[in-house]
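Researcher: Quick test of sequence recovery. Tokens follow.
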């Protein structure tokens, strides 16, 4: 399953649609302005909130938290020791960890579980400027969760670069 994300509107308070590879709107990323912390909602086409994404307020390292129906689903933070490439760790509520690595700011990275590829995020597949693709490679993977992970990782990397 491939999804197209337009990323020129990644600011807090901005909304943008995520489309499938046929050009159909699938998810809306709703940036919540006027909040003390970075907050997004991932909604379906009917406006139902599928996933809440927010920056954790009190953490030693920048951390984004993903919730579904008010329950913690995952926490994303940069790995401490990553010398050559950008690495982020996604810790799911059940303790499972996903590894995110690659050129995050270039939107060229992968999401893996125990060495198995779950999704590839890339600008290479897209001819439209300021967009990137999220290719969910496993049929049993949760596309909404993997898109939320991509949005969080890119947001954290951009905040870190701004310093």
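Model:
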């Amino acid at each position: 399953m491939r999804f197209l994300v337009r990323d020129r509107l990644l600011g807090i308070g901005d909304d943008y649609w995520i489309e499938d590879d046929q050009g159909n709107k699938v998810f809306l990323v709703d940036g919540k302005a006027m909040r003390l912390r970075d907050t997004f909602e991932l909604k379906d086409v009917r406006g139902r909130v599928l996933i809440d994404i927010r920056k954790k307020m009190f953490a030693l390292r920048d951390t984004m938290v993903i919730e579904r129906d008010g329950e913690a689903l995952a926490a994303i933070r940069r790995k401490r020791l990553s010398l050559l490439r950008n690495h982020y760790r996604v810790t799911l509520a059940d303790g499972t960890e996903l590894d995110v690595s690659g050129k995050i700011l270039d939107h060229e990275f992968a999401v893996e579980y125990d060495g198995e590829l779950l999704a590839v995020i890339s600008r290479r597949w897209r001819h439209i400027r300021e967009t990137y693709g999220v290719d969910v490679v496993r049929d049993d993977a949760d596309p909404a969760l993997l898109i939320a992970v991509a949005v969080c990782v890119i947001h954290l990397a951009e905040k870190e670069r701004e310093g």
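The first strand starts at residue 2 and ends at 6.
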